[in-house]
Structure formats: C-alpha cells, structure tokens
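QA checklist item 7 of 12: single-chain prediction sanity check.
[x] sequence parsed
[x] length recorded as 383
[x] structure emitted
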Amino acid sequence: MKFAFRWTPAVAAVVVYLIVRLVGVLVLAWFGTLHDVPLGTALTQWDGEWMLNIAEFGYDGVPESATDAQGLHTDTTAYAFFPGYPLTVGAIATLPFVTPFGAALAVNVVVGAFAAVAVARLGTICAQRMRSGASERTARNAGNLLVVLFAAAPMGVVLSMTYTEALFCALAAWALVGILDERWLIAGLSALAVGLVRPTGIAVVLVVMLAATLARRNGTRAWIAGILAPLGYVTYMCVVWAKTGSPSGWFRIQTHGWGTRFDGGEATVQFLYESLTGALDAVSILSALLVIATLALLVWSFVDRLPWPVLMYGVLVTASVLLSSGLMPSRPRLLLPAFVLLIPIALRLARASRMAAISIAVGICLLSAWFGAYMLTVFDFAI
C-alpha cells in the first residue's frame, strides 16, 4: 500500500510557519553565542520563568525568588498569570522523562501549527470578503502570506518562547474562523478556552458573544456559543476573587505588581512623544514606530472593510494594549495578537508578482529574526 502525500492548504500553512519560526530560533541562537546568552535562557526569560514555575510548582508553590516588576513576591503574585498555558504545560510535564521546559516548547510547536492553519484560513476568508474581494487563488495566497507575517511579526520570537502568545493566537484565530464559517461550537469553545489563557481573551469573548447574538442562522448553536464564550474568563476572575477576597482582585495584582492599569492612553502618548523627540536607544524608537504602524494598519483595515468580527477583535486587542499603562517596550509583544490587522498587507502581497512577494516575505522574516534576537540578548529589560 503506497502512501500518497497531499500538499493541502493546512500542510502548506504549517510548513511555512515552522520555517519562519526555525529561522527566528536559529538567529536567536547565533545572537546568544555572541552575547553569552544560552538559547534555553533566552527562550524562558521574564514571564517565561513564571510560566515554568507555575507549571512545575502550582500557583501556591512558586518559589519566592519569582517576583513582580517591583521585586516583590506575595501569596497572590502568581495569580496575575492566567492558568491555561502553564497548567497545560504542567500536565504534559508529568509524563516520564518530560521536563517543564521541554513540555512548554512542545506545546508551543503544536499549538503554533494549529494557529498557522487557522490564520491561513482566516486570511483566505477575509481576502474574499473584503472591499476589493480576491479570487480563490489570490485569497489562498493571501492566507499563506498572512501566516508568514504572523510568524514573522516584530516580536514573533515569543511564539517560540515559554509564553502564552502561541496558544492565545491559535484559540483566537479558531474562534474568528468559527464565526465566519458559522461553526458556532468551535467559536464558543475556543472563546471559553482563550479566556483562561490571557486577560486579552475578553476581546475574543465579546466578539463571539456579539456575533452569536446577531446570528440569523444556526440559532441554537449560536446561542450555545454565546453562553460558552465567557465561562473561562469569568471562572478565573472568580478564582482570583476567592483568593484575594475582592472581585477586582486580579486587576489589583496587576496594578500593584506590574503598574498596569487603564489610563485612556496617557502613558502611550507620553511614551510616543518622549521616544520620538528625545530617545537615544533603538528599542524605544522602534517600539514607538511599531505602535504608530499598528494604528495605521487599524485605519487601513477599516478602509478595506475587514469583516466586522475580525475588525472588532483587532480594535479591542489594540485598545487593551495602547490604552493601558505599563512597560512600553513590551508593546510589540503585546500587540502580536492583533495579527489580523496584517490582512490588508497579506492581500496586497498576494496580488504582487511572485518574486516581489517572496522577496518581501524573506526580508520581513529576517528583520523579525533580528529584532527578536536583539530584544532577548542585547536589550536589558523585560519584553
């Protein structure tokens, strides 16, 4: 019996994603040798260490050496991090000969592949439904190019780190695909799960709930999706409420430990002004330019009439990042889940000549690899 390999769109998306991420990791390893930063250390820095500690010791057993941005450790500090990723890693690490670090990397490879399939599908659907609708072939190429842009985002390196971005983006993308394809159980279950991964999951939850409410077909399944969507997020908020004794417990942990709070964009505006008028370091200037580029992509997505659930998700993610205070150089990483705003670029590249599209994609991939490696081996502060 002969095995016939089929080069399907899903396989193409996974291969493209893995190649881009492999290039990023190889460049990171090279930078690590230049700056005496072991690859394992680079892939587990800052929040990555928290994820591994929670995976190995549980929330109440995290070593006191793990501290917040203020250098403090309390019995509730670990609860700033949502449980979806670290508990998944911890469960896999219970297998024989599997370490938390190995489990974390394995999880990211697998969920990254699932993310690639969903991102490609999402890009294909959107390309066909946008203002200047694309042919089937062009739309499919746009989907694959969106995978490249997603994997090679400025801080795409975190997709290969012990961080939550790969899992979050996979679930967010599948939730959006579920909405656009009217596969409501996929949308609802993805939203439920993503609400356990990151606080930004509330963006997915709100989009699914609104889309389910407005659905004209598959009424029962849509309503089930709308009911399922908030359960993960609400459940974790209640867990932290029980732990802290306050319904706003999680937000207090974030504010006291990491200085993150809603400020209407005041900190972002101040950062942009100071960076573009007087900053001497490359990271501040590049981070400021990336914030401005994100806002430009948001406007472009409006003009191109991105399907409203996808656009709403992009708006909510961008707003949650830019309207809050906190460590500003982390903005390129935090904006990674807003990858849907790259769809207009993917569509234009799909309409360009093959040589032009490939050349630009390769250039973006190398720039992303450099930026991620620089941030993890040269930059002295958290991402």
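[x] summary fact logged: Residues 331 and 359 are 27 Å apart (CA to CA).
[ ] second reviewer sign-off
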